[in-house]
Amino acid sequence: MDQGDHKEGILPSMPESSASPAPTKKRSVFFARLSSTLFLWALVTVGIVLNLNWLFLALIGGLGFLALLECLKMFGVNDDRRYQIWTILVSLGYLGSVFQHCRSGEGAGRAHFTHLDLFFLALLLFGLFTATLTRALEGEQTLKRLLGSFFSFFYTIVLFSFLGRLLYLPAEHGVYYVLYLVAVTKFTDMGAYAIGSLIGKHKMIPHISPGKTWEGFGGAFLGAYVASAAIYFPFQAKLTQLSLTHVFILPLVIGLATVVGDLAESVLKRCLEVKDSGNMLPGIGGALDLIDSLCFTAPILYLYMTHVIGTAS
């Protein structure tokens, strides 16, 4: 959102010869980011045209798993294989169970999901503490790895899995609700960046992300409403669960969740003193950079549809 964290420092003056390659570097980053974005949207397009829900589940699971690995690394969990391996195994079991339940047709909106969540959270915690008993404690370092493993699982796996649940929540055309969510979320980010870059002057939360401005905050909601209208009106026949009232309310709710989700990763990076979550996606950065806001907006839309609209599978 807005100009990002990369502008927070004051760079020393450089000789003219050293500064000249900068435009070339910016171009290479731009084309790398464009290539990654086009590739991801190509997968989405193929999934929609061919009605391949399994492809969306594979994409959701893959991005969530990559984000988990990045988050574990940020917390230093990789330094202790006991916590790392157990968290990965539980995460794979959880994703497999959730996606199997979605595909089985038993219903994405039933209480069974709550039981799955509680079971795997308890299983993870039990295993982590059991592993802790096998070696001498290292004080705060042990606690950081233990809590980091638990948080990483909940943040990147449980929350992001709501995107898969949305895919099967309505009786049909679930992919269009996922498309609606992704579009509104990403256009919120784009609106914030565009307006913040053009006219942003008043710092929003400088102690967390100096590049974010109140002008960009307004641009975020502008982007959310543009995306909401751009997806809803052409696909209104598919998005039968949404009325005009919902389409007016949802950009506000999703837009706010997007802003909070974006800032949440900034909080993590600052507290853990990490500059980037990863570089697995050329031009974009880490998988966590791509899904951070969706980890907040996917549960919001799912809960809105099940509790406000009353959608049942």
Mean pLDDT: 85
| Overall number of strands | 2
Count of the domains: 1
Count of alpha/pi helices? 12
Write out the strand line-up for the largest beta sheet, numbering strands in chain order: 1-2
Strand percentage lies at: under 5%
Q: What's the helical proportion of residues? A: 55-70%
| Rg for CA atoms | 20 Å
Element-level helix/strand string? HHHHHHHHEEHHHH
List low-pLDDT spans: 4-21
Secondary structure class reads mainly alpha
Task: Explain this structure.
- This protein is mainly α.
- The protein has one domain.
- 70% of the residues lie in helices and 3% in strands.
- The protein contains 12 helices and 2 strands; from the N terminus they run H-H-H-H-H-H-H-H-E-E-H-H-H-H.
- The chain has helices at residues 16-19, 22-49, 53-74, 81-103, 112-132, 140-158, 162-168, 174-199, 214-232, 244-272, 287-291, 294-309; strands spanning 203-205, 209-213.
- Strands 1-2 form a two-stranded antiparallel ribbon.
- Strand 1 and strand 2 form a beta hairpin.
- The longest helix has 29 residues, at 244-272.
- The two termini are 34 Å apart.
- The model is unreliable at 4-21 (pLDDT under 50).
